[in-house]
Amino acid sequence: MKRGALTFACLLGIACLVAVATRVTHAQPAGNQPVEKTFRVERSMPKEAVACIQCHKQEHPGLFADWAKSRHASANITCYDCHVADATDPDVSQAHFKQYQRSDTDFGTAEYKVPITAVVTPKDCSRCHPDEAKQYAMSKHANTMEIIWKIDPWLNKGMNSDVERTAGCYHCHGTVLKMTDGKLDPATWPNVGVGRINMDGSMGSCTSCHTRHMFSVMEARKPEACGQCHLGPDHPQIEIFMESKHGDIYTAHGDDYNWTAAPGTWTPGVDFRGPTCASCHMSGAGTVMTSHDVTERLSWELQAPFTIRPENFKPFPAKVNWQTERDKMKEVCTQCHGKTWVDAHYVKLDRVVTEYNDVYFTPAKKMLDDLYAKKLLDNTRFFDERLEVEYYELWHHEGRRARMGTAMMAPDYAWWHGFYECKKRFNNYMEESRDLIQHNKKAYKAEDYPNATGSTEKPKEVFGN
Q1: Cβ-proximal residues to 452 (8 Å cutoff; 6+ apart), any chain
Q2: Is the pTM of this model over 0.85?
Q3: How far apart are the C-alpha atoms of 93 and 105, rounded to whole Å?
């Protein structure tokens, strides 16, 4: 997608030459009257940008107020700079052209007419944030659509409906954006999923973490930003974090953290006492550089059925060495912990991984394969036979919680929500499986399985034709 009339150099020039470009000011309240927010328009802004600001100030005051308080506004970056599009771009909003035919506003004329898109993509953001966009594009977040279509039986077996996917799965993972009759297709929009496939060929959405239109670095640094998606029975990282000592420190002292430190300068022991998701997985510390590839610093694929090193994860092999990335994470840890503490923590994690792989997953997978080979289970679909669900939840729910709880130092999730539940699930699974084998009895299959109507066609925007 080719974006608009101003080059990055011009934007920098405007921002540098003009002093105090954009400010929110407050009229003095009279008595108990509410404060009126005003905005001083920079005179060097293009008239199209002024039109955007003044119109949205009336039409969407909440949106305007967020932008007016943002660093973008302070740097003279306007709606126009992010949303302007080339007239030939596939995501140009045809409906927005009607705004220039209005008689109830001073800006409803063809003089201010420009093609715009509602979708601001990482490609657009890369004009000012090239390193962040490049790092993000390498991450599992940006590539999650490819990953889930390779491994997820809900999708590739068509076991949920397209509506269920849009409301649930795709809300976090992302949709493949499409236009219908000049408007964004409601089956694919609104969406800010981390792996959204945009019509300019880029993947993801920066506003997954830096929400519109303030784009606050403070929001993205807080664990609640990650907790929008990383929660629940299958990957409860926000709950695990809050149970851990790190989460306890955040709860007690988080109000005193310097959340607004400049990007690349947020420092443990200076700006915050205890870490958050961002400080461990993204922010710089010591000699470790800041990165928007959240899948760096990982030495295990804890979400996978069988735990492996990230570079051995076939659906999306990491382009890094696990030992190098572990050393980075260890250096982050040693900003607050001694080497003995950190090394011993990883010894424990590695032992947990081995026990999960050998004691729980491997025999469960062997039993599933035996049942399919003996045709006691039907492998044409998934989830329509109870043992398939038991096997799935053993690794996808309890198995993940045991491993992730250990990695993030949350003992209740490692044991009671993790290995304790693994034992119950494993025993029941094995008992029913052996009974089927002993009696040569086929498992009950839910013939009326609800809503198994989703498309099994992989998106061509990801996999090609």
Answers
A1: 157, 158, 159, 160, 161, 381, 384
A2: yes
A3: 20
Q: Does residue 1 register a pLDDT over 90? A: no
List, in order, residues 6 or more apart from 186 with CB less than 8 Å away.
none
- The CA angle 7-11-16, to the nearest 5 degrees, is 150
Token pair 């954006």 in the structure block, residue: 177
- Helix boundaries (H) for 170-244: 170-173, 217-221, 223-227, 237-243
Coil, helix or strand for 196?
A: coil
Query: What average pLDDT does range 92-115 have in this prediction?
Result: 92
* Contact of 123 with 133, CB cutoff 8 Å: yes
Confidence of residue 41 (pLDDT cuts 50, 70, 90): low
From CA 106, how far away is CA 365, in angstroms rounded? 67
- At 45 the three-state DSSP class reads coil
What is the DSSP-derived secondary structure letter of residue 33? P
| Model pLDDT for residues 408-442, shown as the tens digit of each residue | 999 999 999 999 999 999 999 999 999 999 999 99
d(C-alpha 86, C-alpha 452), whole Å: 41
Query: Is there a contact between 312 and 299 (Cβ–Cβ < 8 Å)?
Result: no
Are 417 and 455 in contact by the 8 Å Cβ rule? The answer is no
Backbone angles phi, psi at 357, to 5 degrees: -60, -50
- Alpha carbon 47 to chain centroid distance? 35
> Is residue 465 very low, low, confident or very high in pLDDT (cuts 50, 70, 90)?
confident
Largest Cα–Cα separation, the chain: 84
* Distance separating alpha carbons of residues 362 and 379, to the nearest angstrom: 19
Q: Rounded CA gap, 393 and 234, in Å? A: 8
Task: Name the token pair of 44.
Answer: 């060097």
Measured from the Cβ of residue 44, the count of other Cβ atoms closer than 10 Å reads: 13
From residue 59, how far is each of 38, 54, 83, 177, 363 by CA, in Å?
15, 9, 17, 25, 60
- Compute the distance between CA of residue 175 and CA of residue 450 in angstroms, rounded to an integer: 23
CA-CA distance, 278 to 137, in Å (whole number)?
17
At residue 93, does pLDDT exceed 70?
A: yes
For residues 63 and 338, give the distance between their C-alpha atoms in angstroms, rounded to a whole number.
46
Q: Which residues pair with 116 in a beta bridge?
A: 84
Backbone angles phi, psi at 158, to 5 degrees: 65, 40
Write down the residue that tokens 């306007």 correspond to: 78
Which residues make up the CATH 1.20.850.10 domain(s) of the chain?
295-457
Q: Kindly indicate whether the domain formed by 295-457 is annotated with CATH number 1.10.10.10.
A: no
Report pLDDT digits (tens) over 389-406.
999 999 999 999 999 999
Q: Is there a cis peptide before residue 129, judged by omega within 30 degrees of 0?
A: no
What tens digit of pLDDT does each residue of 206-254 get? Answer: 999 999 999 999 999 999 999 999 999 999 999 999 999 999 999 999 9
